Amino acid sequence: MKIKNALMLAAAGVLAVTLTGCASGGGADRAPAKNGYKAQKVVYHMNDINWGYRGLRNMKNHLNALGDKNLKAVMVFHSSGGFIVVDGKKDKKGHTFGDQIQALANRGVKFALCANTVRGKKIPKDKINLNAEIVPSGVAEVAELQYKGYVYVKP
Questions:
Q1: CA angle, corner 28, sides to 148 and 75, nearest 5?
Q2: What is the C-alpha to C-alpha distance for residues 86 and 124, in angstroms, rounded to an integer?
Q3: Dist. CA 147–CA 114, nearest whole Å
Q4: CA 67 to CA 20: how far, in whole Å?
Q5: Using an 8 Å Cβ cutoff, are 21 and 42 in contact?
C-alpha cells in the first residue's frame, strides 16, 4: 500500500509541475513582456508546406504580442515543411516564403531544417534560405528544445 501511495504522490507532483509550467522554464521567475504576458521560449513545429504561410504569420503575431526581446523563438522544419525554407518553393496557393522568413530572422527568430529531409527530398543546399541552419533531425530538435524549456506550438 505504501508503494501505491508513493506512486500517486509522485504522479501528483509531476502533474503539478506540468500545470504550473515550472518544468518547462515557466513560472513566476519569467520577466514581464507586453500585453500582460511574460517572456517566453517557443518552438514552432512545421512539417507541411501548406501551413507555411499561416505558421510564419502566427510567429509574426506572437512577436507582436510579446515584443521581439521577450520571445526566444525557433521554427523547426521537416517533411514537406522543409520546402518552406527552400528559396522559390510555393505552396498550393502560390505563396513563397523568403520575405516572411527574412523579416522574422531580422526580429530574432531562428530557423532549423532537418538534414534527413534535405537528403530524403533531395533539396539542393544552395537553394536553402540562408537564415536556416541544418540540424541532424527535425523531430529530435523539437524534442531537445522542449527539454530546454521551449513550449511546443503546432500551427
A1: 35
A2: 9
A3: 18
A4: 23
A5: no
pLDDT tens-digit readout, 92-143: 999 999 999 999 999 999 999 999 999 999 999 999 999 999 999 999 999 9
Number of other CB atoms surrounding residue 24 within 10 Å: 17
pLDDT digits (tens, 9 = 90+) for 11-65: 444 433 333 344 445 555 788 887 899 999 999 999 999 999 999 999 999 999 9
Strand partners, 153: 44
Contacts of 58 (CB under 8 A, 6+ apart): 44, 153, 155
Separation between Cα atoms, residue 59 and residue 30, nearest integer Å: 20
Residue that the C-alpha cell 518553393 belongs to: 89
**What are 84-88's contacts with CB under 8 Å, separation 24+?**
84/46, 84/49, 84/52, 84/55, 84/56, 85/111, 85/113, 85/128, 85/129, 85/131, 85/132, 86/123, 86/127, 86/128, 86/129, 87/127, 87/128, 87/129, 88/127
Tell me the backbone φ, ψ of residue 111, rounded to 5 degrees: -125, 130
Cell reading at 63: 512577436
